[in-house]
Design brief:
Structural class: alpha+beta
Bound molecules: ligand 2BA
Strand content: 35-45%
Oligomer: single chain
Radius of gyration: 18 Å
Strand order of the largest sheet: 2-3-1-8
Number of strands: 8
Length: about 110
C-alpha cells in the first residue's frame, strides 16, 4: 500500500479531491501553509493500493497542472493615478510525495 501526499493550490483542491473520490479513492484534505511563501495551500492524503499509485498521480496531475493566468495588477503612475497592468502569473502545479505504508488499520 502507498500513501500519496499532494501539496497543491487551494484553487485546485476541490477539483482534485472530488476527481479522486469519483475514481473510488479516499482522500483526507488538510489546510496547510507553505514554509517559504507563508501562503495557504492544501495537502491531500490518499492511501491506495500499490498498483493504483499511477492513477492517483495522473488524476492529481490532470487537475492541478501548472498554467498561466492573467491577473489584474494596479500600479501607481507619476500622475497620481492607478493604472491597471494585467500580468501573467504561473498558478497551479503540485508537489507529490509517495511513501510506503507499513500497516493500514481501521478499528
Ligand atoms: P514549489 O516547489 O512548487 O512548492 C510548493 C509548496 O509545496 C511549498 O510552499 C511547500 O508547502 C510544499 N513543498 C515543496 N517542496 C517541499 C518539500 N521538499 N518538503 C515539504 N514541503 C514541500 P512554499 O514553501 O511556500 O514554497 C512556494 C514556492 O516558493 C515553491 O514552489 C518554490 O518555487 C519556491 N521556494 C520554496 N522554497 C524556496 C527557497 N528556499 N528558495 C527559493 N524559492 C523557494
Amino acid at each position: 500500500m502507498k500513501l500519496v501526499f499532494a501539496i497543491l493550490s487551494n484553487d485546485d483542491s476541490s477539483s482534485v479531491s472530488s476527481s479522486l473520490n469519483k475514481a473510488g479513492f479516499q482522500v483526507t484534505k488538510l489546510a496547510t501553509t507553505g514554509g517559504f511563501l507563508r501562503a495557504g495551500n492544501t495537502t491531500l492524503i490518499c492511501g491506495c493500493q500499490d498498483e493504483a499509485k499511477e492513477e492517483v498521480i495522473d488524476i492529481i496531475k490532470k487537475h492541478s497542472s501548472s498554467r498561466t493566468e492573467i491577473v489584474p495588477n494596479m500600479a501607481g503612475s507619476d500622475f497620481g493615478h492607478f493604472v491597471n497592468f494585467p500580468m501573467e502569473v504561473q498558478v497551479g502545479g503540485a508537489v507529490i510525495f509517495v511513501v510506503d505504508v507499513e500497516q493500514f488499520i481501521k478499528v
